[in-house]
Design a protein that fits this description.
The complex is a heterodimer of chains A (about 325) and B (about 375). With about 325 residues, chain A is an alpha/beta fold. Helix content of chain A is about 35%, strand content about 25%. Chain B has 14 helices and four strands. Chain B has a four-stranded mixed beta sheet with strand order 2-1-3-4, covered by helices on one side. The longest helix of chain B is centred in the middle third of the chain and has 32 residues. Classes of the chains: A alpha/beta (about 325), B alpha/beta (about 375).
Chain lengths: ~325, ~375
């Protein structure tokens, strides 16, 4: 559609939603251009699912407005429903129907057939084909998600919403799943995805960090990581938990988070040279009995950036 | 494949895959009819009866034999005079007594009116009147036989039970029972069908599809109609074979009306389903919404005629009431649509209203 090239695939303006006393979304505004692979990154309960459900016409917002493919999500419901592909966070296929029967059902619901759009789902379905007669409920986690993706794609949607597609899926399957998304993106499809895994953010063109219903930042993963703005140190020692406690007791400690097999540390003092901070911390920890301690300057990741931003509103309060 | 055909196919697969539920759904009505059929029969057998026969002869002997021949009665005593009766009633040795006049045979032979006194233990009024009419039935049979032999008989008492001359309660109950089991099973099937999708989360993707509420609802109802109709077939066969309920009218009409009634009940179930969010609530709703009203207000066990008017008005809203009239009409009276069209139209109207209400209350969004 030529008109869509000039408009955004998703436009959200001042969106708000509350459930009783709980604020699920607060003043969310953003725009996603067509063809982008856009990610919402945030912990459980951040409001990702609520936002996705509003965008796919499943719930009504309390405030603000949103358009998808130039259509209002509250009024153009039936028009939108034939154009979007949606994969809910919870496995939502029929466990008693086979792989093939699920796929055929979702194709028929849109008046389509599996064969008609087979080119689009072929790369995914080929991996599922050996299990096509197996009940969907008996598939492994990764296979379930691939089937769900197939079912969301089988009517050739103009935009795809995937709510936490890789939650509860093993690392290999997660990587495979993202490779599939890359191929879909290459075909020009707009994809909006959410995930609680920070390491998946780098797969997206742009990401929005979301926390307690608010958007903390929207940018490319690299720039979000770079926006960290303080020297960051990776601290390692043999005994990790005592190390964490010891570092937290250090008088100059700013933020301390476990990160992989290390601790990520920032100093609370401004304007010091990184070497000075590192040697100060190293001396302190050796004094606490961590003879094998190692303190190294490290490049901030998106997770560090997220953790730092998460802390901010609390500090302000 | 069109969206609707795809939906029907999917519902069909669900039904076939869940073998255990399928078996329960098909066999439950059959079992229920047998259980309830025997449990709620009010037929009384082995009534302990004493006959007072002051001057025995061939004709009084014949009457006595008639009492001992039916399994409704057990002739325990034959007495020459009624003096012992009070004692026998008080001790419970007899439940009923038939007292003949001393000149019974004499008057009968001369064609004069004959009097027979029937005394029944009415401490339990329902069985009292039942025993009374059983006895009357036996006497009337005797009367008819004597009359065909050319004698003139005048025995004053008369109570004629049309359509159910033997007063077999199964004739009365089984049509109602059919209504009862079909409603419960049908409403239950559809009541959990929508809520199951809500619980498993599949409703979420079903909603984000171009399927309209009306399609989803009608799709569910039609898929279960096939199973419901199987139940109709089994239950009707059972009524004939086990309970010997007559089928005086058209079998085709009865099956057609059964199908319509199933449709009404399925629609009631789907309405419950579209207004609830969990299978458990829907199940309780379907049971409460069908069982009690059907038992109490359909006229199936308790005659509507003896209820106060507010209950009679409410009963009009119970689909089972109309189906009971239809089923009794076709099975016992042998009448056809020319008499039963009002009830048929009412059931059709109820179905339309229920489906419309279910479609209206179907939420096109999540909570």
């Amino acid at each position: 559609m030529p008109t869509l090239a000039s408009t955004n695939a998703v436009e959200i303006d001042g969106l708000g939603k509350r459930f009783g006393a709980t604020v699920a979304l607060e003043n969310v505004s953003l725009a996603i251009p067509p063809g982008e692979l856009f990610g919402f990154i945030g912990p459980d309960g951040a409001g990702k699912t609520t936002l996705f459900r509003i965008l796919v016409t499943l719930i009504l917002p309390d405030q603000g407005r949103a358009t998808v493919l130039g259509r209002d999500v509250t009024t153009d419901v039936w028009d939108l429903r034939r154009r979007v592909g949606y994969m809910p966070g919870r496995f939502s296929l029929y466990p008693d129907l086979s792989v093939e029967e699920n796929l055929r059902f979702f194709a028929s619901v849109f008046g389509a057939s599996v064969e008609e759009h087979y080119d689009l789902i072929a790369p995914i379905y080929e991996q599922l084909a050996p299990f096509k007669d197996r009940p969907a409920g008996a598939l492994s986690g990764g296979m379930k998600q691939k089937l769900a993706l197939c079912c969301a794609l089988v009517h050739r949607p103009e935009i795809l919403f995937l709510d936490e597609p890789t939650t509860g899926v093993d690392a290999v399957s997660r990587r495979e799943f993202w490779e599939l998304l890359d191929r879909l993106k290459a075909s020009g499809l707009t994809i909006v995805v959410s995930t609680p895994y920070m390491d998946e953010a780098n797969r997206c063109g742009r990401v929005a960090l979301i926390q307690r219903g608010r958007i903390l930042a929207i940018d490319t993963p690299t720039r979000i990581a770079e926006s960290f703005g303080r020297p960051l140190f990776a601290v390692r020692a043999g005994k990790r938990y005592p190390l964490l406690l010891a570092v937290r007791e250090y008088a100059n400690a700013g933020t301390v988070f476990p990160f992989g097999d290390a601790l990520h540390y920032t100093d609370r003092r401004d304007g010091l040279m990184p070497d000075a901070i590192a040697s100060g911390l190293r001396d302190y920890l050796r004094g606490r009995g961590f003879a094998d301690v190692e303190v190294k300057l490290t490049a901030p990741t998106i997770e560090d950036s997220f953790m730092a931003r998460m802390g901010e509103p609390e500090r302000a309060a | 494949m069109s969206a609707f055909a795809g939906l029907l196919r999917k519902e069909g697969l669900h039904i076939l895959r869940d073998r255990r539920t399928l078996l329960v759904v098909i066999f439950m009505p059959i079992l229920q009819v047998v259980l309830f059929g025997y449990a709620i029969r009010t037929d009384i057998t082995d009534i302990r009866v004493a006959i007072v026969d002051p001057s025995p002869d061939a004709s009084t002997l014949e009457l006595r034999n008639r009492f001992s021949a039916t399994n409704a009665f057990k002739l325990v005593r034959v007495l020459p005079n009624p003096t012992l009766l009070d004692h026998l009633f008080a001790s419970g040795a007899i439940q009923e007594a038939v007292v003949l006049d001393g000149d019974f045979a004499n008057r009968l032979a001369r064609g004069l009116p004959v009097r027979i006194l029937i005394i029944a233990d009415a401490s339990e009024p329902n069985s009292g009147s039942a025993m009374e009419s059983y006895a009357l039935g036996v006497i009337q049979g005797f009367e008819r036989d004597v009359a065909t032999r050319g004698g003139t008989v005048r025995i004053a008492a008369e109570a004629r039970m049309r359509f159910n001359p033997t007063r077999a309660s199964s004739n009365l109950f089984v049509p109602g029972l059919i209504a009862f089991v079909l409603t419960v099973v049908s409403a239950l099937m559809t009541a959990i069908s929508l809520t199951r999708e809500k619980e498993t989360g599949t409703m979420e993707i079903l909603l984000v599809s171009p399927l309209k509420p009306f399609q989803i609802i009608v799709g569910k109802v039609l898929a279960y109609l096939v199973i419901g109709f199987l139940s109709v077939l089994f239950v009707v066969a059972e009524a004939r074979l086990i309970f010997n309920v007559p089928l005086r009218g058209s079998l085709l009409l009865l099956l057609g009306e059964g199908l319509l009634y199933i449709l009404t009940s399925l629609s009631l179930g789907i309405l419950i389903s579209s207004r609830t969010s969990s299978q458990r609530v829907a199940m309780i709703g379907a049971l409460a919404g069908t069982m009690l009203p059907t038992i109490l207000l359909s006229g199936f066990i308790f005659p509507l005629e003896s209820m106060p008017w507010p209950l009679r008005v409410i009963a009009n809203a119970i689909p089972a009431k109309w189906f009971v009239i239809i089923a009794r009409g076709v099975m016992l009276k042998g009448v056809g649509l020319e008499y039963l069209w009002p009830q048929t139209l009412i059931l059709l109207g109820m179905t339309v209203v229920l489906v419309a209400a279910a479609t209206r209350s179907f939420r096109i969004r999540l909570a």
